[in-house]
Amino acid sequence: MATVAQKLGGDDPVAPRDVAPFEVVPFSCEGNWFSAAWRLRHLFRRWDADVVFVHTEREHIIASMACWLGRSGKIIRRTPSSCQLAMAGKGKFANWLTNTTYLFSSDADAKMAILPRRADRSAVARLGVDASRYPDRTALQQEPRPEDIRYIICVYDPTSRGRAATAIRTVSMLAPRHPYLRLIIFGAGSDSEDLRMQAAALNVMDLVSFLGERDDHLTLMRDAELGWVVAEADTAAYGILDLMALGVPVIAAEGSVAEVYVANLISGALVPPEDAASTAATVVTLLASEEQRQAMGSAARVRVTREFPEVAMIEGFESAIQIAAGRSRPKG
Question: Which CATH superfamily is 131-307 part of?
Answer without folding.
Answer: Glycogen Phosphorylase B; (3.40.50.2000)
